[in-house]
Write a sequence for this structure.
């Protein structure tokens, strides 16, 4: 049956207002009345994505992957209805990527590129997928992205990382400076800047870059991972513990916040501060850390204490 334009319009309206339940009701009705129209499944997919955003905001991290997979499945239904729309393939790939289904995401990004070779978003994501396994392919894709749109800071920053890995310090710094100039307020670009500094042998500069960010920005998981790498290069496990504890505090609303407390405890233990490690493990337990993860670190602490006393 032809799609009911009024119902689609109403669904779009509710979605724009953030009224996801109402939008979902229209999507469900359209899936019954117009299952052969790609717009039906596109609406359903965007409702799933909206719920994923809400789940992330509320800290319900365990809900995000199933919602992303549901969005990818809805986009795939849309593609069955009309496989000529590059954006549907790219959107399906984005959802699959965020759900951790990387093989599907790569295949769908490639299909999107075949249908629209002027869209820089698909090759940018493909470059990220190939970054560690095939840096030459990643470089070629990133350079293609810049040909399509020279103002994508993420592409320049990623190339700076590849240059730094290859030991081309001057080029890495020039590319990174350009990426920062294109997106000076992006915390993500700043985290990459810190990584480039570390790769170029200046981890203290990397620390400086991240600590210059706002408290919320520097307490993200991505920033904390890079701080861990920089402080690790400087031989400061105590400061690694600081970074992960700040991440734990800044993300206490997340259902998986315990992970950050456990990492802080591991770093505190590496720094020889068993009291702090024990306190952090207690805090991790209070917010739902699995007993097996907590006991693993406690066992390590007991072993270290035994070795120390024996010595």
């Amino acid at each position: 049956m032809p799609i009911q334009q009024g119902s689609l319009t109403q669904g779009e309206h509710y979605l724009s207002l953030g009224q996801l339940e109402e939008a979902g009701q229209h999507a469900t009705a359209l899936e019954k009345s117009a299952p052969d129209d790609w717009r039906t499944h596109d609406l359903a997919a965007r409702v799933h994505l909206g719920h994923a955003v809400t789940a992330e905001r509320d800290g319900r991290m365990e809900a995000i992957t199933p919602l992303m997979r549901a969005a990818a499945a809805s986009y795939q239904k849309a593609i069955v209805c009309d496989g000529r729309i590059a954006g549907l393939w790219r959107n399906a790939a984005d959802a699959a990527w965020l759900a951790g289904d990387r093989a599907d995401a790569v295949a769908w990004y490639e299909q999107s590129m075949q249908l629209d070779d002027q869209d820089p978003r698909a090759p940018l994501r493909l470059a990220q997928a190939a970054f560690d396994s095939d840096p030459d392919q990643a470089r070629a894709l990133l350079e293609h992205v810049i040909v399509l749109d020279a103002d994508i800071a993420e592409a320049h920053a990623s190339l700076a990382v590849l240059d730094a890995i290859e030991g081309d310090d001057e080029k890495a710094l020039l590319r990174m400076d350009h990426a920062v100039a294109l997106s000076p307020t992006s915390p993500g670009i700043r985290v990459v800047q810190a990584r480039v500094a570390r790769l170029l042998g200046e981890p203290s500069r990397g620390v400086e870059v991240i600590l210059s960010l706002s408290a919320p920005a520097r307490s993200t998981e991505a920033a904390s991972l890079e701080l861990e790498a920089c402080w690790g290069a400087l031989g400061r496990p105590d400061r690694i513990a600081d970074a992960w504890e700040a991440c734990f505090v800044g993300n206490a609303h997340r259902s998986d916040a315990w992970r950050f407390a456990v990492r802080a405890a591991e770093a505190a233990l590496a720094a020889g501060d068993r009291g702090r490690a024990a306190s952090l493990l207690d805090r991790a337990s209070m917010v739902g850390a699995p007993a097996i993860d907590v006991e693993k670190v406690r066992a390590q602490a007991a072993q270290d204490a035994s070795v120390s006393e024996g010595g």
Remarks:
- The two ends are 80 Å apart (CA to CA).
- The chain has a mean pLDDT of 95.
- The chain has three domains: 1-115, 117-235, 236-311.
